[in-house]
Amino acid sequence: MHTVKAIYPGTFDPLTNGHLDLIARGAKIVDELVVAILRNSDKAPPLFSVEERQEMLTETTRDFDNVSVDVFNGLLVDFARQRGAKAVLRGIRAISDYEYEFQMAMMNRKLDPELETLFMMPAEKYTYVSSRLIKGVFQLGGDVSALVPPLVVERLRSKVPSKL
Ligand code: PNS
């Protein structure tokens, strides 16, 4: 039988409804989707620990029977090979995402020509949503409840001192 396993990698600090939308779209077209959180990111210090991010993702994706959540270190291509995945799933929200995504996809192709990158677009209503904006707006007292799952709002509330 021909089955397709894909990795959906990212920082997910924290996951947003845009990520969830992409997971739902991806889970419809591949047989197995592994959401993979990068442990050693070179981004600014994260708000949530990897374990907290993994727990939030696991909880919010529990209704998908072909989605699992894992953590990886090092090169994505090595993790994909180790997990027997043929594809990487990434979301493109706007043209501004394209250059970075194109560079990563080409570098991953150079490192492993067998691994394909699949790009999907999230629902229009989430095209401006990013984890960075969510954290920034929440920290300044803004309402992000339409843009992240309720569990994330709860965790943001317990992590960030209230502005009220
Ligand atoms: O959510 P993000 O921060 O845009 O995700 C970026 C991620 C995790 C997909 C990317 O940084 C990554 O794959 N890092 C692993 C290191 C790697 O494989 N680098 C070579 C490809 S450019």
Give an account of the 3D structure:
- The chain is α/β, with parallel strands linked by helices and 164 residues long.
- The mean pLDDT is 95.
- The protein has helices at residues 17-29, 50-60, 76-82, 95-111, 131-139, 150-159, and strands spanning 5-10, 32-38, 67-72, 87-91, 116-120.
- The protein is globular and about 50 Å long.
- The longest helix is centred in the middle third of the chain and has 17 residues, at 95-111.
- The chain is built from six helices and five strands, in the order βαβαβαβαβαα.
- The protein binds 4'-phosphopantetheine (PNS).
- Residues 9-11, 38, 75-76, 104, 107-108 line the site of 4'-phosphopantetheine.
Write the layout of secondary structure elements.
Layout lengths: L4 E6 L6 H13 L2 E7 L11 H11 L6 E6 L3 H7 L4 E5 L3 H17 L4 E5 L10 H9 L10 H10 L5
Query: How do the strands line up in the largest sheet?
Result: 3-2-1-4-5
Give the number of helices. 6
Please tell me the overall pLDDT: 95
Bound ligands: 4'-phosphopantetheine
Structural class: alpha/beta
Biggest sheet features: 5 strands, parallel
Radius of gyration: 16 Å
Shape: globular
Number of strands: 5
SSE order in H/E notation? EHEHEHEHEHH
Strand percentage lies at: 15-25%
Helical fraction equals 40-55%
Uncertain ranges: none
Intertermini distance: 56 Å
Quaternary organization: single chain
